[in-house]
Amino acid sequence: MKFQILSLTLIVFTLVISAGYSQQSVKDSLTLEDAIGLTLLNQPLIEQALEQVNAADARIKEQDSYYYPQIDGFLSYARIGPIPSIGFGDTNFELAPANNYNAHITAYQLVYDFGQRDAQVDLNKAYKLSSEDKVTLIKNDLTYQTVQIFYAILFLRKSVDVKDEQINNFKKHLEVTTKKFESGSATDFDILTTKVRIADAENQKISIANELSKAEIKLRSVLNLATDARLNLTGIFKADSMDYNLSSLLEKALKNRPEIILARDAENSSIESKKVASLTNIPKLSVLADYGIKNGYEPNLDVLRGNWILGVNASIPIFNGNLRDAKVEEADAIVKSSSANILNVEKDIKIDVEQALADVKASNLKISTTEVQVEQAIEAVTRADIQYRYGVITNLDLLDSETSLAQARLLYIQAQYQNVISYYKLKKAVGITLY
Q: What's 307's DSSP letter?
């Protein structure tokens, strides 16, 4: 028994430690996949869309209920006066009791309505499908929004690092310039120029840091995290390979994009609505059964007796002011509008795919060109630093080379960022989900 208790304690302790380690790992390091998972788990917009699906499902159940009998129970009591009676000689015969009791159960069943119930159920099923596809659209938009903000933060943080390195290089250069000024080989204008460049770089860093702060606020909002939650993102600017054939991409996009699926859902719903409208004036056939007990029957008016009713009802609309024709006309217009909307969505999708593909190709080229710029700028700074120390070039020339290097590094980081973003934009344009 003691061994079992000890084993159970060790298992619980291990689970607690494992859970704590898992939570610490997520807290200390947040990958793109982790961020997408938190978005899908915590976003109220998704919960709201899922509740719309539940509401649509409830409407289907509501329509299904009309396939079953409607059963109601009734209880009543009434005291009347004066009591109707007939006099015969000295005797007075009462025709109704003073106290009237009535209890009965009524069952009503719609037998046939020429498909009106089925059409309404099909319409609600179409609405439910549209609600489910809307959940997919919302999830898709949120995941790609998470991707964009995630990589924007990585880009801005790398940009801050570049500015920090530039500022540090300027400060080291200021130390060298100050020593040269003390030895008489530089002027106070050289020192002032260097300080101006440092201040300019720091101002640029402040602007980038501000954009970084706003991006982090957006990401916490998308992930539904606390405002003081730490964001230790880990990731690189990497775009996986994919098929860049335009015809193939367009074919996938017109099949998989949530927007086109929703547009087709809307068309299907409008067609089902037209069916419902066309059945507005349809007759209905129903049966009625009623059983109960009541008093008031001869020869003893106060005795409760069983009674029943069986009946068949036929409801035949004759005239309703051309309501059916108006409903059908309205539904037909909505069907045509939905069909036209599909064509418009397809057109927009084609534009999205073509533009995203063009961005991917352009960003691929920019990476190679900016990489060359960085290599050349590094070489230029190395030479300029040596030349400045030997007095071949001026202080301003060296500062210009340092500034060009920082600019080249920023352009390279920006090219990497734009490349990965354009890659994900193409995936979104094609309709590829990330979850």
A: E
Furthest CA-CA distance within the chain: 149
For residue 41, give every residue at least 6 positions away whose Cβ sits within 8 Å of its Cβ, in sequence order, or none. none
DSSP string, 51-96: HHHHHHHHHHHHHHGGGS-EEEEEEEEEE-SSPPEEEETTEEEESS
Q: What are phi and psi of 9, to 5 degrees?
A: -65, -45
Which residues contact residue 222 at a Cβ distance below 8 angstroms, ignoring those fewer than 6 apart? 39, 43, 142, 145, 146, 149
User: For 131, which DSSP code?
Assistant: H
CB-CB contact of 170 with 197 (8 Å): yes
Element (DSSP H or E) covering residue 48: helix 44-64
Exposure class string for 55-80: b at 16+ Cβ within 10 A, else e? ebbebbeebeeeeeeeeeeeeeeeee
Name the β-bridge partners of 289. Answer: 107, 310
Tokens read off for 426: 């193409």
Strand order in the sheet with 305-315: 70-79, 99-112, 284-294, 305-315
Q: What is the pTM of this model?
A: 0.80
The C-alpha atoms of residue 383 and residue 396 are separated, in whole angstroms, by: 14
Return the amino acid letter for 301. Answer: L
Segment holding 153, helix H or strand E: helix 116-182
Distance CA 276, CA 120 (A): 6
Contact predicate 409/372, CB 8 Å: no
Count of positions (residues) in the chain: 435
Instruction: Tell me which DSSP letter residue 235 carries.
Output: -
Pairing of strands 284-294, 85-88: unpaired
Torsion of CA 263, 267, 269, 272, to 10 degrees: -170
Exposed / middle / buried, residue 2 (Cβ in 10 Å: 0-12, 13-18, 19+): exposed
pLDDT in tens, 366-391: 999 999 999 999 999 999 989 988 88
Q: 150 to each of 33, 204, 381, how far by Cα in Å?
A: 10, 22, 33
Residue (of 178, 165, 163, 174) closest to 196 by Cα position? 174
Q: What is the pLDDT of residues 179-225, one digit of tens each?
A: 888 888 888 898 999 999 999 999 999 999 999 999 999 999 999 99
Tokens of 67: 């396939």
Q: For the chain, what is the total number of helices (H) and then of strands (E)?
A: 9, 6
